[in-house]
Amino acid sequence: QVQLQESGPGLVKPSQTLSLTCTVSGGSITTNGYYWSWIRQPPGKGLEWMGVITYRGSTVYSPSLKSRTSISRDTSKNQFTLQLSSVTPEDTAVYYCARDPGAMDYDYWGQGTQVTVSS
Q: Rounded to whole angstroms, how far apart are CA atoms 88 and 4?
């Protein structure tokens, strides 16, 4: 059974960089054919896909967030990390990591972590 767990600070100040880590168990992030995404849901809004890191380590970002987003991984820890720079209160959301076996059809999700941007 694959499990994903997000971790990171729940409160970030405006203009700072938000950093979250997703720890994966029960499966390797380097397994061929799997893609590892970050997705967020602002209060009262729908899900927003932020970006993905592939099993090969390449990345793709949402065009609307590309200038502020970076996703990396630590294969020795089976983790991947989201960094979102220059945050504003509009970046307040529940942040999820998820596994995609292809075609953005997510089969495993983390429980989500609330991040609030406030001074």
A: 26
Nearest residue to 44 via CA among 10, 86, 94, 110: 94
Average pLDDT, the chain: 97
Q: Are 89 and 14 in contact (CB under 8 A)?
A: yes
Which tens digit of pLDDT belongs to each residue from 15-42?
A: 999 999 999 999 999 999 999 999 999 9
Question: Distance between CA atoms of 79 and 103, rounded to whole angstroms?
Answer: 22
| Cβ(22)–Cβ(110) below 8 Å | yes
Phi, psi of 91 (to 5 degrees): -90, 0
SS3 74: strand
pLDDT digits (tens, 9 = 90+) for 50-74: 999 999 999 999 999 999 999 999 9
